[in-house]
Amino acid sequence: MMRITFIKSIRFRLPAFFLLAALLPTLLSAIWSSGLLEHRMEEMFAQQAQDSAQVASNIFEEYAQDLFLKTRVISQSQSVSQAVNSNNYLTLINHLSDLYQDLNLQLYDAVIEIYAPNGQLMVAEPRQSKQLVPADHIQAALKGEFKNSRFFAGDELLICSSLPLYHASKPRPIAAMGISFRVSHQLVDQIRKISGTEVMVVQAGAEGHVLATTLDESSSQGLLKMLMADKRKNHVSRSLPYMLSSVSHSVRNGEYLLVVALSVAQMHQMMASIKEVLVIVEFAAIVLALIIALGLSRNFISKLMELVRLSQKVEAGDLDTQVQLESQDEFGVLAQTLDSMRLEIRQTLREKELMISNLTIRDEINQAIISRSGNELLLQVLTIVIEAIQAQQGSIMLVDRDSGQLLLKVVYDPRRDLHPVNVHERISFSIGEGIAGYVAQTGEAILCNDPHQDPRFKPYHFQEMDQRLANLLCLPLQVEETILGVISLDNKAGGFQAEDLIQLQDIAKQVAIAIKNAELYELSITDGLTGLYIRRYFQDMLEQELKRSLRFQMQTALILFDIDYFKRFNDTYGHQAGDAVLRRVASLVGHSIRDGVDTAARYGGEEFAIIMPDTDLQGAWQVAERLRQSIEAAHFEYEGQSLKVTISLGCAEFPLQADSRESLIEKADIALYASKHGGRNRSTCYVPELEHQVEISLPPS
C-alpha cells in the first residue's frame, strides 16, 4: 500500500486549502475596506469642509446684515438726529459712544461716521484720521438713498452701510451716516467659535494677502501659498495638517476668499479609531473564518478518513463490515457506492469460494469413489459433507431393497467420534415417517431450523448421540426418478442457510450417482447368493493388499475355509437348504470380521476366503477360531428341521510364509486340508511340515 507523508496527505492539504480560501478574501477585504474607508473619510471631511465654508460664509453675511440693521437703529435715534440738527457735536459724540457700546459695535471694529449736508465729515466714533465711507455713498445718502458696499482699502477689507439722517422739522436729510467695519482677526475668531473651524479671509490676487485669520502667521502663510497655487475656486484642497475649502466673494475693487481650514488630525483620529474597530472585526472575522475552515475541513477529513478506513478494511479482505456514513451529501453517496461494490465483491467471492468448495468436494468425493466402495464410501462421503457444510453431525440412510424401508447406514459426530460409525443395529424408518421418511417419499429437500416445532420430526437415539436437534438439513439421494436414500446434516452453528441447501443439493446429486454406481459395481463383484465378494474380486483385492503389505512392511493373513459335509446337505435336504446354509454362514462371517478392513469372499461352491490386512498368523488363527465357534454354536433350521453345521479353516501369512498371491493361497489351502484330514471342525495354521503330512489336491485356480 502506498505510503503518504503528512505534507502530501489530505489531512494537511485540505485544512491548508480551507485556511487559504478563508484568509485570502478576509485579508483582501480588510485591505480594500481600509482603503475605501480612508477614501470615504476624505470625501466626508471634504464635504464637511465645504459645508463649513458655506456655514462660515453665511455667518459672515449675517454679521454684515446685522451691521446694516444696527445702522438703521442708529439712524432712527432721535437723540442723534436732534444733536445733528442742533450741531451739538459734543452731545452727538456722547450719543454715538453710548450707541456704540449698546450695539456692541466694538465686536466688528466698526466706525460710525456722520457727514454734513455738504459732504464733510462731522464726527466719527471712534475717532478716525481719514474718511472711510466712499464719497458716492455719502452723496447717495444725502439724497435719501441706502447703500451697502464692500471694498479693499489698502490691506483691509471694509464693509460699509450708508443711509440718510432725518429730523422731524425738515423734509430732506439733515446729514448722512455711515458705518464701516474692518474684517479683522476678532471677527473671524467669532466666526470660528460658531462654525468650529479655523477661518481665513484672503484677498484674491496673484500672490494673495491674508486679511484676517484664526491661525498663526506661519500656518496662514503656508496655507495661502497652497491656496494661491490652486487656481480653482469654491473647492476643497488638502494641505497637511488641514483640509481647506473656500467661498469666493466679489467686492468693488477686487475679490476675497472666505477660507475654512479643517484639521485633518481629527480625521486621522477618527480613521484610527475606525481602523481599530475594523482590525478587531477583521481579527474576529479571521478567527471565525479559521474556526469555520477548520470545522469544515475537519468534517470533510473525518468523513474522508472514515471512507479510507472502511476502504482499507475492504482491501484487507473484510467484506462483512458495512461501508456506512451518516452523511446526506456526496460522501454519503460515495459510501453507498462503495458498500454496493463491497457487496458485489463479497457475492462474487462467495460464489467463487462456493464454486471452489464444490469442485474440491467433488474431487474428494471422486477420490473416495475411486478408492472406496460400500459402507467405506458412505463413511468417507459423510465426513467430506459434514466438514464442507460445517455441521456438527450427520447421517446417511439408504432404502433397503428387500424391506423398502430407510436403513440408517452411517452416522458421524466429530465431537464424539474420531471417524464415522457404521450402524450394525437395525435402525429404520418407514417411507413417509419422520422428516427423513418425508424427504424419501416426496424427493423434496427440507431445511428446518426448529425441528421440534415440525410435526414431521421423529427423534431417535444412537450411540449416545443426543437427537434433540437444534436444526437440520435433509436432502434426497436421487438418481433420475429413483430415490436411493437421504443424507441429513444436523446442528450447524447459526442455523442452515439457503446457500447451504444449494451447495448440498449439488453434492447430493453427485453422492447419489456415486452410490448408484457403487451399487452397480457391488452387484458386479458380489455373489448373488451370499452377498460376499466373488472370486475374481477376491484375487484382485489380495494382490493389492500384498503389494500394500510390502510397501508398508506389515503382515497380511489369509483364511480359507469350507463347510464340512456340505454335499450331504444338498443330497439330504436339497439345494435350497444348501443355499440357506451358505447365506447364514456368510452372514456370520460378516459379523466376525473387521468392517471396512477385512475382505470376505465366496471362493467357490462352499469354500470361502478372508483377507486380513495388518494381521499376523496368530491373529488370523484367533479370528478363524472365533468364526468356527460361532458357526458351530449357531442354530441352523430349515423347514422345521435343525441342522448341524461346522467349518474347517486354514490360515497362512504373507510375507513370512509366502512370497506371492498364488503361494499364499496354496499355503492356506494346505492348512485347510490339514484341518479336514485332522477330523474337520477345526482351524489350522500353515507350517512347512504340513506339506509332507497331507496329500494335497488343490482346486483349479
From TrEMBL:
The chain crosses the membrane at residues 277-296. GO terms for biological process: cell adhesion involved in single-species biofilm formation; negative regulation of bacterial-type flagellum-dependent cell motility; signal transduction. GO terms for cellular component: plasma membrane. Pfam families: GAF_2, GGDEF, HAMP. One of its GO terms (molecular function) is diguanylate cyclase activity. InterPro entries: Diguanylate_Cyclase, GAF, GAF-like_dom_sf, GGDEF_dom, HAMP_dom, Nucleotide_cyclase, Rev_trsase/Diguanyl_cyclase. The keyword Cytoplasm does not apply. Keywords: Membrane, Transmembrane, Transmembrane helix. It comes from the Bacteria. SMART domains: GAF, GGDEF, HAMP. The keyword Isomerase does not apply. Residues 298-350 form the HAMP domain. Residues 554-688 form the GGDEF domain. Signal peptide: none annotated. NCBIfam families: GGDEF (TIGR00254). This is Diguanylate cyclase. The lineage of its organism: Bacteria, Candidatus Blackallbacteria.
